[in-house]
């Protein structure tokens, strides 16, 4: 098998995850260039992947001028830079692995799609949950006709308190105007993709309701201060930044990223200074963000099947739940448990039979933080083989397959803001 050569644009957490496949499987992937405006991150990447000064760049144009050969370029930039960087990568006629979401605008989405087709470039979207053993097995049962025709799908995502506050409350994705994406794109783009991918039919209509109702200023206790470090409520507030980031080492790759040093070397004094001066230290009710903290949507597909999805931000435990009802059977389970129930109706006994499908032993996860139940490893494993000419796995997320999920989000946001049912049109 040919070793795939990959350049990475944007060396944050996600860029490192995809690049690190080269450390796990050095015979399959080689990192040939890193492009990032942060000089510290370039130095880290040089040491991590054994790169020379001539293989790291602060802008994409310089990488193109270098004429370094790359089979694919990973675009792991922040949401608001996706369009610009995607167009640059496609104009250089490179295949692209693109971190989700693609873009938040339908016109820009079609620009990327049309340019990729014009330049004969393959674009893979990082809907990594497709590649987890859990959802791959769910898809196999559905496509194999084991539950018959889909009647309905029920899915939800519970976003854990630290994750919601660190990313969508105090973090980079707290404001749609700043990051360029609503939370349905920034977080639940995975779930919208799964709804379309598992169903296999075209979505026709959508309705959605959602609000930011809990993490808002009116719920802030009267005696609470702007920052948590000097707040009289710090000891009894469940959202205290001091509890999250000072007492406990929660999501350091987000909280400590601005310090430009290894997380393990950050002192208590440096942590406290961040909590006194940055948004990460602010009151959970006074973070200034505008992305919703709860949302529901219902989808009507062209064949008459339906789907419902619920997002809850700030939950006790993180999990994703799915229940697919078909004409011959059902699938029900939770991703975090890495197992689901396959259920069939027994007409003779007027009851049902069920089988537990446990996939824990099939997960390969070499990521320090997260790993998406094996999906982070799985996407690189499948793409390397696809670029080597092997048949596409059922999970391969080519751009044309991801457009539907983005149109779903655009429609959901239009519905949420207008209180109207929206027709999904390409």
Q: What would you say this structure looks like, in words?
A:
The structure is a single chain. This protein folds into three domains: 122 residues, 3-Layer(aba) Sandwich (Rossmann fold), CATH 3.40.50; 193 residues, Dihydrodipicolinate Reductase, domain 2 (2-Layer Sandwich), CATH 3.30.360.10; 65 residues, no CATH class. Helices cover 34% and strands 23% of the residues. It contains 16 helices and 15 strands. The protein has a nine-stranded mixed β-sheet with strand order 14-13-12-11-7-10-9-8-15. A hairpin with a 4-residue loop joins strand 9 and strand 10. Helix 5 runs parallel beside helix 6 and helix 12 packs antiparallel against helix 14. The longest helix is centred in the last third of the chain and has 20 residues.
Overview in brief:
34% of the residues lie in helices and 23% in strands. It has 426 residues and is α/β, with parallel strands linked by helices. The mean pLDDT is 95.
What would the keywords be for this entry?
Rossmann fold; 16 helices; six-stranded parallel sheet; Dihydrodipicolinate Reductase, domain 2; single chain; nine-stranded mixed sheet; 3 domains; alpha/beta; 426 residues; 34% helix
CATH architecture of the largest domain, by name, is 2-Layer Sandwich
Structural class, please?
alpha/beta
Portion in beta strands: 15-25%
Distance between the termini: 38 Å
Number of helices: 16
Q: Low-confidence segments, ≥5 residues, pLDDT <50?
A: none
Tally of separate domains: 3
For the largest sheet, list the strands in their spatial order. Answer: 14-13-12-11-7-10-9-8-15
